[in-house]
Amino acid sequence: MPAWSDEQLEVINERGCELLVSAAAGSGKTSVLVERIYKRITDESDPKDIDRFVVVTFTKAAAAEMKQKLRKRMDAALASESLTPSMREHVRRQYRRLSGAHISTVHSFCNYIIGQYFHRIGLDPSYRELVGAEYELLKNDVMNELIEKEYEEARDDFIKLADIRELNKSDQKLETWIYDVYSKMISEPFPDLVYDRWESILSAPLESDKSPYIGRLISSTGVWAREALETVKQMHYEYGDAYKNKDENTVLALIDITEKIYDTAAEYKDGKIDKINAYNRIKDILSVMELSGLPKDENKNNTKERNYVIRTCSPIRNRLGSMQGDDYHGTIENKQRDQDLMRDECLTVMRLAREFDQRFRQAKRDRGVLDFSDLEQYSLQILYDRDENGMPVRSDAAKELSESFVEIMIDEYQDSNRVQDAIFWSV
Description:
By secondary structure, the chain is mainly α.
């Protein structure tokens, strides 16, 4: 038996709570996980069956390795005199059940969920997995059919996009856009809700409360201004004598400008002014600033203190210049026109990605094949119903599965995506 550290023993023996274990590669995480499982199935006060645990690994090889280590751990226990007769028989039963235990990759676990509840989503249980060249071929066929249909129907939004982006030269750029949006959406739980949310955001006028752009710009500006103000004030306190009567006016101007910007953003955050007034006020502050006194670059002929002042102030001055010429350049109305152009293009690509998603999913179902993202998304459809507002709620299937398992252990949890996380939390 290994000599477990205090931290490892805590992981092995802790019960009735959520545990997040962070450890370096080669530190024995798998061995600790195996020992935790073994302790749970041989707990004299409450022995569990091995098939009541879900253990998710990153690869099939890791799952096979974990099963092998568990098998060796049980072999060692059965060869010793440490087990009572009843516990010895219990361990033998777990040994026989080990091959069917839920120690697998997340996609194997999804296969199990779908296999148990395929009838809930009307799926043919005889599906096979779609991978490699077959996946690429079907994806390209569906994409080509979609774009061909769009050219035939000649919808205004598509023709406008094609003209602006000169898609008549090649469809490759459009195909990349569509597939990129599709890929991002299916990596999210409940992609239909994500599509709806982004379409709502993109359709909202810039000055409306639904549009997040201006509010986020002001908020991020406020965070930056606070940090810049603290930096310059501290520098002025420590090095003020080094540049007195030379660069002092520029430094004091930096303090004044960043303080005014921060105060404006704080008033917006506190609800004292709306985002239109906050935007225009920051724009006015930037439009009259004068920061030409301080050199932009350090010089070997300068004192060490003056070069430090230049090194500290230059990035702040550059950022203010960028804000003046870009973020806060022009009126809200001008930004609205720019956003309208980009918004229409984004909405068109979003519509095409959504239709590609539907067509691709149907093409796969017609052929009796599923890819990895389908395994995850169909598992979510099984594990979640929708309430009267269309929002996800745990289904009876999720509750039933949850009652059949006593614990979920996830190896390499940091590699899980948001869809997989929603699956784990549901059971």
